[in-house]
Amino acid sequence: MENIKKRFESLQFIPFVLVNGMNLFPIFILVHVFLQHNREFSYLLPLLFFYCFKTTILFLIRLKTLPMKKLLPVSIVIGIIGCVFGLFINQSIIFGWIAGSLLGMCSGLMFPSYTTVMFHERSLNEFKGSSQLYSLGYALVFSAALFKLIDVSMVETFLFLGLNLILLYSVISTYPDYTIDETIPYPNYSTIETLVLFFVGFFTVFIIKGDKKLGVTNFLISLMLIMLVLLVIYFVYYKKITRQRQFKPLESALMIYKGMLTNFILVFCTLYQMINHGKSSLMIVYSLYLTSIIISPMIGKKIKNKQHVIVYGLVISFLLLSTHQLFYIGVLTLSITTSIYNQQLNQAVYQYPVLPRDFRLIAKYRLGNIGSIVHQLVMMAVLLIVTNTSHKVSLDNILHSYSFKEIDTKAIEVLDVSKYSILMIFIVILVFLYRGQKKEAIFSK
């Protein structure tokens, strides 16, 4: 028994890859399900439910406290159950809906709980993670096997993912135990506000992702108008009615900005490159993103003044992304910079005594999810405005090209204008955040 435990302890490179990969691997599987069945809406729902629950499940966690060392294995078990339902997807797509929902919950809960547990283990038990080189090797082997199985059998693919999640559960079960003495009470979050955030986020993601995948804009304009009204109402609520927030506005903005950057990489960059260069672009962007997450801790350790490097890295990345020839290099540098930025935020939030120690990072990731939703709204609004003013191609044409993974030369100029507009928005926000950081002390009491 002791020998088995030691073997699992030696596999510490597995959690890092699988936890990060659960943001991407189910997407590849569920997209293939949709494409396999001639893009029928019922077969798109597993993917939509994955996106929706992945983005919004942390809002519901506000209502019920659960220690992170319990939430992490719970999230893995949810993913395993999701894979079990996926085994029966050929019998009925309803099993696919359940599988997509459960895998989305798993993905949304796993990353913040795992990150928190690892911070606890390092600070309380001096527990060391694995070599990043081993992680990179495992990521390459796992990805190659998964992509091969996707083309062969959906049942075998879900079985493969489920077995790896069981392996993940076995590895994290070997972590040393710890005890946290909490002196700060858990906040009494408003139930109404929590439910509003969940449902608004859920249906916003559902409509945007659904319209993108189907290549239509049936509900986008109505969604934009509704969101504008809701933002005004929420701003009044935030400023006049709600209690004092845990984080300062600038601190919240920094975390929301990081969520916007990540969503820009995974959503706009894939859309842009796919319409410019075809379906292989999706795999390239996702591979660069996953690779950057694995190697960024090694790079981050060698950087002394991370704040300046992050600012310069973002600006250089934006410049690289503005060119066609250097776009992929821009994706890589932006992914690495964003990952280092995320590490810095994690470190600062974990040490910031505004919440119980066990729940600080999950609050940070909630704000990141809000940033993800905000970016999707900004991206679709920019695309809508640019396409309507250019009269060269409609947003429906762009979404159709993206959905069917087709190159559309008519859309390239319109997409370039949209890209420049979004990058300019990012630069303007970065300037305000940088100036704010120089004037105001953040994450300090």
Automatic annotation (TrEMBL):
Residue ranges crossing the lipid bilayer per the database entry: 12-35, 41-59, 71-88, 94-112, 133-152, 158-176, 188-208, 214-236, 256-275, 281-299, 311-336, 417-435
Statement: the UniProt record of this protein carries the keyword Cell division: no
This protein's record includes keyword Transmembrane: yes
Keyword set, alphabetical order: Membrane, Transmembrane, Transmembrane helix
Protein origin, superkingdom: Bacteria
Protein name per the record: MFS transporter
